[in-house]
Design a protein that fits this description.
Helix content of chain A: 55-70%
Order of helices and strands of chain B: HEHEHEHEEHEHEHEHEEHEEHHH
Number of domains of chain B: 2
CATH class of the largest domain in chain B: Alpha Beta
Largest interface: A-B, 57 and 49 residues
Structural class of chain B: alpha/beta
CATH superfamily of the largest domain in chain B: Response regulator
CATH topology of chain A: ABC transporter involved in vitamin B12 uptake, BtuC
Shape of chain A: globular
Helix content of chain B: 40-55%
Largest sheet of chain B: 6 strands, parallel
Number of strands of chain A: 4
Strand content of chain B: 15-25%
CATH architecture of chain A: Orthogonal Bundle
Number of domains of chain A: 1
Number of helices of chain B: 12
Structural class of chain A: mainly alpha
Distance between the termini of chain B: 76 Å
Oligomer: heterodimer
Shape of chain B: globular
Strand order of the largest sheet of chain B: 2-1-3-4-5-11
Strand order of the largest sheet of chain A: 1-4
């Protein structure tokens, strides 16, 4: 049995202003999440420096646009995945379905003449409904979340294939124009991601809901002993994660003029990779969303760097896959060390 | 029963409902095997067995069945249609059904080629000739689009546009690859690049770059920004790719990075060149009219029915029949009827007509 470094019974557990509670300092006196942040920042800086040495023009607004655009949808989805993982729900493998289902609902609403202000909530509520379905099966059926979401992922894809072959957002809709625009020099869709990460981080650190979610994920027995309703919290985490995935779907529909039901599949690896690389433990109860944004940024930089190096783009997947394995290994090592 | 609490029963019920829902969802994608138009082929009338692919996201596969049915009726032949349901097991079972029904030949699209050797053995033992679409199998007549010509046609059209608009002053030629497609990718993107080089021979080799688009817009849109960022000074940009999705992904990335001032793309397959939301920078595409494959297959069937079976040509490089690709500009594509109307017009056309004859020659 593994134990979390954060327990809900420990009201003195340190908190990070940007995310979930900071974990116990390591042997060098650094909180674990700060160490994670430093590690990722260091590796990210190395990647940027190496690319800049080879191609000095890497440090440009074009690169910044490329990276921020690439990380926008992935970043929102990573927050959704992080909510599930931190709450002890292991992983949600049906996130690509949640993304596309929400995007499809948004686009369908727009194509039926509904205003943008209505279409966006429809997309978000669709994501919540999908999360609710997963939560219902996982929490009340007491089934393994990975198996359940794997199954609902397949089933959801199949159902979507019945209802639509491809979806197209109206080219003159406000949402589409928003997706093509920029604010403060960066893609419009980058800012909702940043807002979601900041709000999510604050919610984990400063709200009762966030702290209870961490408690449920980190040490369910202790959380239950303190009167927290585990089922309700886990069900709420699926719905909350679904809402965030729904927002990702709305943003996805804004930047993707045409998409098919299977279009979300390519996000799976980068989202899971970002979450694990950020030190959000698969055992639950641990994680920091500020580290997550660094992780997403680092992974989003890899394809751009590879283009500057002139390498075949398939190398991006090789690097991301390798990093994922390393991150999982580090997570496992930490758990073993904690258990000792 | 006393061991079961109400909560456990409720949980059991929930799990059962969820499992049933998933099973229904799964089953509904498989679809139902289409009923045979002819129950048996006991008479001497020539009988064609047709197995549609049954992939859920491909309308054209079902329409291939409709086209084939119309062509069989046109000839007064019996017609047996089944769906492979995108499944190896179903495709194999369908072979047994066709043999049992005594068909004279089979036409099929099977998206799971690993089952083809087993199916081929069954048909070979029964002495039934087979026409396969797009996926080659030794011993079967191969019918597919001429991908090599499609790539060359697309590249030539785009090169000509670059010549007329920019006097071949091209700073970047981006190739949105789908390496998993293997030789097809090489034919479509490689030949397109070669064709651009032929029309505009002075474009430096360093101006040709490739990236992985994986044949879909999402991946293309995720990977293309880096390519544009890595070539910040490129003004006049051309994009070729495995298909329309890959090309449009690059064009959209250019828009996101503010690099769409002077860019043109030419797609493949015609997937995104029609409709209300065609990307303004997608200058054209190469249409294949996938639903019209049976028109080529029935030319082979005519010879077999006449007792003059042609020699089997079973590879993509030496096909029994090639579906001629149709390069169209965005304006020309807008004038081509939608897929259902095309099927109707093909059914009403004289015997031997192809969709290329109907919609491209003009």
């Amino acid at each position: 049995m593994t134990t979390s470094l954060i327990t809900p019974a420990d009201p003195a557990a340190p908190q990070s202003p940007g995310g979930a509670k900071l974990r116990r300092p390591d042997s060098r006196g650094l909180p674990v999440s700060a160490r994670d942040a430093l590690s990722i920042t260091g590796v990210w800086a190395l990647l940027i420096i190496a690319t800049t040495i080879v191609r000095p023009d890497f440090l440009s607004t074009q690169s910044l646009l490329a990276v921020t655009f690439t990380m926008s949808i992935s970043g929102i989805l990573a927050v959704s995945q992080a909510i599930i993982v931190i709450s002890g729900g292991l992983l949600d493998l049906s996130l690509p379905v949640s993304l596309i289902l929400s995007a499809w609902a948004t686009v369908t609403a727009l194509n039926n003449g509904l205003p943008t202000a209505v279409a966006i909530p429809i997309g978000i509520v669709t994501g919540m409904a999908w999360g609710g379905l997963n939560g219902l099966i996982v929490v009340f059926g007491k089934l393994n979340p990975i198996i359940v979401t794997l199954a609902t992922g397949f089933g959801g894809l199949a159902v979507m294939l019945i209802f639509f072959k491809s979806a197209q957002i109206p080219s003159t809709s406000e949402l589409r124009l928003y997706g093509l625009g920029r604010f403060l020099g960066l893609p419009n869709i980058f800012w909702p991601m940043l807002i979601v990460i900041v709000l999510g981080g604050l919610a984990f650190a400063y709200t009762r809901w966030g702290r209870r979610l961490i408690a449920v994920g980190g040490n369910p027995s202790a959380a239950k002993a303190r009167g927290i309703n585990l089922r309700r919290m886990r069900f709420a985490s699926f719905i909350g994660a679904g809402a965030v995935a729904g927002l990702a779907g709305v943003m996805f529909s804004a930047v993707t003029p045409s998409f098919t039901p299977a279009a979300g599949a390519s996000f799976q690896l980068i989202v899971i990779g970002a979450v694990i690389l950020a030190g959000i433990s698969l055992s639950g109860g641990k994680g920091n969303l500020l580290v997550l944004v660094l992780s997403v940024g680092f992974l989003a930089t890899i394809p751009t760097s590879i283009a500057f190096f002139g390498l075949a783009p398939a190398w991006a997947l090789v690097f991301q896959g390798a990093l994922l394995i390393i991150a999982v290994g580090i997570d496992g090592y930490r758990l073993k060390r904690t258990a000792r | 029963m006393t061991h079961f609490t109400r909560g456990r029963l409720a949980r059991l019920g929930l799990v059962a409902v969820a499992a049933a829902s998933l099973m229904l969802a799964g089953c509904s994608t498989v679809g139902s095997t289409s009923g045979a138009s002819t129950d048996s082929a006991t008479d001497s009338t020539f009988t064609v067995g047709f197995a549609v692919g049954g992939q859920p996201d491909a309308d054209w596969q079902d329409l291939q069945g409709e086209v084939a049915k119309g062509l069989a009726e046109q000839r007064g032949w019996n017609f047996v249609e089944l769906s492979n349901d995108n499944s190896e097991a179903t495709a194999t079972k369908n072979a047994d059904i066709f043999i049992q029904k005594g068909v004279n030949m089979v036409m099929m699209f099977n998206g799971q080629p690993s089952a083809n050797p087993v199916i081929a053995k069954k048909y070979a033992d029964a002495g039934i000739p087979v026409v396969t679409f797009d996926i080659a199998q030794p011993g079967w007549y191969f019918v597919g689009v001429d991908n090599a010509t499609a790539g060359t046609d697309g590249g030539t059209a785009l090169g000509n546009l670059a010549k007329s608009k920019w006097n071949c002053q091209v700073d970047l030629v981006i190739s949105a690859e789908g390496t998993a497609a293997g030789q097809i990718n090489t034919w479509r993107t490689g030949n397109a690049r070669d064709a651009v080089k032929k029309v505009c021979p002075n474009i430096p080799e360093a101006n040709y770059v490739s990236y992985e688009a994986d044949g879909n817009l999402t991946t293309s849109l995720a990977n293309a920004p880096g390519v544009f960022a890595a070539h910040p000074d490129a003004k006049n940009i051309l994009v070729v790719g495995l298909n329309d999705q890959a090309v449009v992904g690059a064009l959209q990335a250019a828009t996101q990075l503010g690099r769409d001032g002077s860019i043109m793309g030419w797609g493949q397959d015609g997937g995104l060149i029609t409709g209300a939301n065609v990307d303004p920078h997608l200058a054209g595409s190469v249409m294949y009219f996938l639903e019209g494959y049976p028109a080529e297959a029935f030319k082979i069937a005519d010879e077999i029915a006449a007792g003059k079976a042609p020699a089997v040509k079973d590879t993509g490089t030496d096909p029994a029949a090639s579906v001629q690709p149709c390069p169209v500009t965005a304006a020309q594509a807008a004038a081509i009827p939608n897929i259902n109307d095309r099927v109707s017009q093909l059914a009403a056309a004289p015997q031997g007509t192809t969709e290329y004859d109907l919609f491209c020659k003009a």
